[in-house]
Amino acid sequence: MDERKLGNKSQVCFAQDVVFGDKRCILVRHGALEVLFNKDNALDIVWANYKGVNLSFLSKNGLNDGTRDFTGNFEGGFLYTCGMDNVSGCVANKPVHGSLHYTKADNAYHYEKDGAIYVCGDVKDSALFGKHLVLHRAYKLTERSLEICDTIENADFSEGEYVLLYHINYGYPFLDECLQLDVPAIVSEPLTEIAKKRQAEMLQITAPIENNDEDVYYHTLSQGNVRLYNPDLDVAVTMEYDVADFPVTLQWKSMKSGDYALGIEPSLTRFDRFAMQKIAAKTSKTYQIKINFQ
User: Residue 246 is part of a domain; what is its CATH number?
Assistant: First the structure.
């Protein structure tokens, strides 16, 4: 950035509190990267654009208040954080994929330091006579990267438990038939019988298909480095994370017309071997994912 050419740095780099529909958000632009964070939904990410290209899957539901069932609520977005009380339908009497996403972030703020923009806030999961967990979120944005740094704090005086899954969703026009998906998997296992029949084509993106069923796979990775590249748009996204923290990466592929989406989902657990993470009283645990854009 040559600041001599700028009347105001916000020409190329800014963070601004905005209202999008009826949601309180933070809009960040840093060079060719634009990201919209939703304060009213756990500081999750509504969309991410790079070089003017939309990367995100936004469902037909749009942003909503979460008062319907999961299929009527699910918004997609670039990041939909699942947890801390459930992923999928593993825990009875809890919302599918958990209640975290529909919890408002407290103390949400943003600032600039050393050429990067930071977006931060806290999301609480607590109950009278029960748990007291706080998810401290800190995002760092540069011109070509987005870093997620989440710290789970057990603020209670007793041991707690939690679960997390990062539902990172890609959509058109970045998601298209030409998209190349590089997943360094040691083992890949289908979640359903339909997925099992299609496993040979699990990394292939097709044209939209009417009335198509979704496919879900469990990947055990040799390293946390998943790359997506659209050669027609010349845009690439690389996700980096520690497989010791995220022992399973789920791949959700929906080629259904109108629900055309691809999810790459670092997770603490599988659904069929579901296990909550234990956390001692007055301790914390940090999880990081870095997303690079080219």
Answer: 2.70.98.10
